[in-house]
Design goal:
- It is a single chain.
- The chain is an all-alpha fold.
- 81% of the residues lie in helices and 0% in strands.
- The protein has helices at residues 7-12, 15-39, 42-45, 47-58, 61-84, 88-93, 101-114, 124-129, 131-147, 155-195, 199-204, 208-218, 220-238, 242-257, 259-274.
- Helix 10 (155-195) packs across helix 13 (220-238).
Length: 275
């Protein structure tokens, strides 16, 4: 069942914008926001809190967060491309790529025939002699293909593109997100120790009765948010990595290049019907 999107958010962001820009930004602020609500639950229930949220949204806070996520993601992209050796689509079109030679030949043949400039795709020898020139040809063909795969009929391409944007932007936000998580954890721990000054002694002496009383006094909400912050920090460190982004980049590249086969098959069907 699809989750309904509030009208305000739907007007600010399209499907790609929500997945690739807004969601990473919200994941960044979620742990500290959850902690604030756990310590001050009246903010969630009060009309003042709802008014503040509405005002912030109306003033473009969500849009600003999404824009910030995109900016951070775009800034790290050149470093990622340098590390990978180029765009994943370009790498797959190269003669030395992991793509099998028969599929690669079909893609070369299709793109060479449909790109208006009639690009001449390099041979193995030409690519080895001039890698930069070969990459320029592949990049140009991919740009042309990207512009013609915008729309609902290319849903798989759009999904994979949003997935790549989501992961790239998360990686761009990673330093700031980790700082927020760390600060939130430190502040939460200091507050807990302030409320329970004997907590260290109870832990050192394995005094489970005292620990249970501290947990009861703090309440499940605060303990749960502490666990969420800790889990979020581990996720930012071990899940949001350059390798994770690279995997999404190549998944998108495979989906985009597969359009060559889809379009060829559709053209062949039309020809058969015409005959």
């Amino acid at each position: 069942m699809a989750i309904p999107i509030p009208n305000g958010i739907a007007q600010l962001f399209d499907s790609y914008g929500r997945q690739a820009r807004l969601f990473p930004a919200l994941l960044m602020i979620f742990p500290p926001l959850l902690t604030i609500l756990a310590w001050f639950p009246w903010l969630l229930l009060s009309s003042g809190g709802a008014t503040l949220l509405t005002l912030a949204t109306s003033c473009g806070l969500l849009y600003a967060l999404g824009s910030y996520a995109r900016t951070k993601g775009k800034r790290i992209e050149p470093k990622l491309l340098k590390r990978w050796g180029g765009w994943p689509t370009t790498l797959l079109l190269r003669h030395d790529s992991e793509l099998d030679q028969h599929t690669r030949l079909r893609y070369h043949t299709y793109l060479a025939g449909v790109v208006p400039e009639s690009l001449s795709f390099p041979t193995v020898q030409e690519e080895q002699a001039n890698p930069a020139g070969a990459n320029a040809v592949y990049d140009s063909a991919v740009r042309w293909l990207k512009e013609r795969t915008r729309g609902k009929e290319f849903a798989m391409v759009e999904r994979e593109n949003a997935q790549y944007g989501f992961r790239r932007n998360l990686l761009g936000l990673k330093p700031f997100a980790l700082t927020l998580c760390l600060l939130t954890l430190v502040i939460t721990m200091l507050t807990i120790f302030n409320k329970a000054p004997n907590l260290v002694d109870s832990i050192r002496n394995w005094d489970f009765v005292a620990l249970a009383k501290v947990a009861s006094d703090l309440g499940p909400a605060i303990l749960a948010t502490f666990a969420v912050n800790l889990f979020a920090m581990l996720a930012w460190v071990f899940v949001v990595t350059k390798r994770w982004v690279r995997e999404a980049g190549f998944q998108y590249a495979y989906a985009l290049l597969a359009v060559c086969d889809m379009t060829t098959n559709a053209t062949n069907k039309k020809r058969k019907k015409a005959v």
